[in-house]
Design brief:
The protein has 623 residues and is α/β, with parallel strands linked by helices. The protein has 21 helices and 23 strands.
Length: 623
């Protein structure tokens, strides 16, 4: 091995990609050890890293050409040893002369002084700070001043970063091409407008606020559906280079903030809006007029309140068919559409805002290749028939689409371009519909999840690759469990609930029957009903998963969901901090609090005691 030419050894090492294989290879001979060390361009270290200065210096000497370093302490506990501190980061920054990409994850021992050491890395191009609890705006400003070549910056869960002097400096420098800010409580979306001229070169931008407990509920604020944030050029900056834009969990009223970016993008190719409040059709219309190159759009929408007339308001999603028509007319290169509607009920299709007519205009006007629909209550079998004639559709994913039945699957099976199909929680589709898929042509992949009327036997052989799951198992997610008691005999005789009659209690959906099951807390661990694992608890952060799990489990097992009369009461209960408060609210609304009932009873007794005939009053008059 020692006699092999160095060029040949180098080529052999380049063919090996797994880190474990490279580590084993370096132990074979001194030549391989040296050559592999020189070739290694990236390492990822964490709890096993020795933080002594000598060890870190030796590590940098072992890999002198490191260009990418990731230091990850996720899952770290004090028993794992010391973390990399400011002194250790100084060793890395001073010894790794070729370092261009650095990621610091869960590094709780590094503060502003340590981050300031990165000013020695004149070649640093990309910096990612993930859950850095000790770093503030001061340390970030040091990086902005010292790392003049910085072009990509990611800030995720950095709670102490507040003031944005660093952002203003980077904006004046104009070197950033990629900026991602997620869950940084000290940074508001309107602060990002201080980036100024830096928007001109920015190609990728993401901003996400930390999701709050009830931010997906409609809330009390009412927005103006006609407000146009783009009619006047309030902010003097341009986003001519921006290609990827994602905004999540922000409210764009009364502070407009990043809402104006939608009307300033000219080269945008990928747009993702997730639960952005106060938007309306004018925002998408303005975007469509300037973004003819738009290729992908993802809209995750929840219920909000909008004025209509005479002081009244309606509860619906942010957009209507008008924005679909604008996209169909102006964005003729659109290839990927992802629509998710959260909290809507199949009995009230007007809550979504979109209709099947407007949706089909978009599909028929653009070369849509990938289509994802989540809780799209407007889509039925006629819509599936229209999709079957779409000449470009290759991937279709349907989630919670109750109006799609076997007839719709029969239509889509006729689309010879379709290669990948996913059905999740589509209880209107049975084995009969799935059998139609394999008759025209074989799919590349078929995913069937939590569709209670489809069996594994029916799915087999329909596609080259089949993924099938019948139970919504959450064992791996570490949820606590509840135990659902058997249905009362009277309810059992009526049969089980399916499709539209089932409801998601947390989202405010109504049911067509007042019968319900009893939901009682079980012991820690798994709750079981006839040997089956059932629903998890609702926590502060798992609403989306919890809602889907509850709905699927109750439908699969044929159980009536907990009945709460109407969505208005649901939203009242959702604002309560605990179950005791929610229960007291129900008691007060339904039968009155104990004091109220006692007071009413006393009033009735006093009225009875005072009951007497007047001189001129007869029995008939008293009755």
């Amino acid at each position: 091995m020692e006699d092999l030419p160095e060029a040949l050894v180098t080529e052999i090492i380049k063919k090996i990609t797994r880190t474990s294989d490279l580590n084993s290879l370096s132990l074979v001979s001194k030549q391989l050890y040296k050559t592999e060390g020189n070739q290694r361009g990236a390492i990822r270290v964490g709890s096993g890293l020795c933080t002594a200065t000598e060890a870190l210096t030796s590590l940098c000497a072992r890999f002198p050409n490191l260009r990418k370093v990731e230091i990850d302490y996720s899952g770290w506990i004090p028993g794992h040893g010391n973390q990399l501190d400011n002194k250790g980061l100084f060793v890395f920054s001073s010894q790794c002369s070729s370092l261009i990409d650095l990621t610091l994850s869960f590094c709780s021992y590094i503060d502003d002084s340590g981050l300031g050491c990165l000013a020695y890395c004149k070649t640093l191009v990309s910096l990612r700070l993930i859950s850095a609890p000790q770093i503030t705006s001061i340390g970030l400003f040091s990086v902005a001043v010292g790392c003049t070549g910085l072009s990509a910056l990611h800030l995720i869960d950095c709670e102490k970063i507040g003031s944005v002097e660093w952002l203003e400096y980077l904006g004046m420098d104009g070197s950033l091409y990629e900026l991602v800010v997620k869950n940084c409580e000290g940074i508001n979306h309107h602060d990002l407008l201080k980036f100024g001229s830096g928007w001109m070169k920015l190609q990728k931008f993401e901003f996400e606020k930390k999701r709050k407990r009830f931010d997906r509920l409609p809330g009390d604020k009412v927005y103006d559906p006609l407000y146009d944030a783009h009619s006047m050029d309030i902010y003097d900056f341009c986003c001519e280079s921006l290609k990827d834009l994602r905004l999540a969990h922000i409210e764009t009223w009364p502070e407009i903030g990043l809402r104006v970016v939608l009307g300033k993008c000219k080269a945008l190719e990928n747009l993702c809006l997730q639960y952005v409040r106060a938007l309306n059709d004018n925002d998408i219309i303005a975007l469509s007029r300037s973004c003819s190159n738009l290729k992908s759009i993802s809209l995750w929408l929840n219920l909000q309140r909008y004025y209509i007339d005479d002081g009244y308001c309606e509860t619906r999603m942010s957009f209507t068919d008008n924005c679909l028509y604008a996209l169909a007319q102006n964005c003729r290169m659109l290839q990927t559409v992802d629509l998710k509607f959260e909290g809507c009920f199949s009995g009230w299709p007007s809550e979504i805002g979109f209709t099947q007519k407007g949706f089909l205009v978009l599909i028929q006007s653009c070369p849509i290749r990938v289509l994802v629909l989540n809780t799209a209550n407007f889509l039925d079998d006629e819509g599936m028939k229209a999709l079957s004639s779409s000449p470009h559709l290759e991937t279709l994913e349907l989630i919670f689409c109750p109006a799609v039945t076997d007839a719709g699957i029969r239509f889509i099976a006729q689309n010879l371009c379709l290669r990948n199909l996913t059905l999740r929680v589509c209880h209107g589709v049975t084995d009969v519909g799935v059998a139609e898929l394999g008759r025209e042509h074989m799919l590349e992949s078929l995913v069937i999840e939590y569709c209670g009327e489809i069996s594994l036997q029916a799915a087999q052989g329909v596609a080259k690759s089949v993924h099938y799951s019948s139970d919504y198992s959450v064992e791996k997610k570490g949820y606590k469990w509840y135990q659902i008691l058997p249905i009362q005999d009277a309810a059992t005789k009526e049969g089980h609930v399916g499709g539209e009659e089932a409801q998601d209690t947390a989202s405010g959906s109504g049911s067509k029957s007042p019968r319900c099951t009893s939901l009682s807390p079980g012991r820690r661990g798994r709750g079981q009903h006839h040997g089956r694992e059932l629903a998890p608890t609702l926590t502060r952060t798992n609403y989306a998963d919890w809602a889907m799990l509850m709905r699927v489990q109750l439908q699969v097992h044929g159980l009536w969901v907990i009945w709460i009369s109407g969505p208005k009461l649901v939203r009242v209960l959702a604002a309560k901090d605990n179950t005791k408060a929610a229960w007291d609210t129900i008691k007060t609304l339904r039968v009155g609090a104990e004091r109220v009932r006692d007071a009413k009873a006393q009033t009735r007794r006093r009225d009875y005691d005072r009951l007497a005939f007047k001189d001129d009053e007869t029995v008939e008059m008293k009755v």
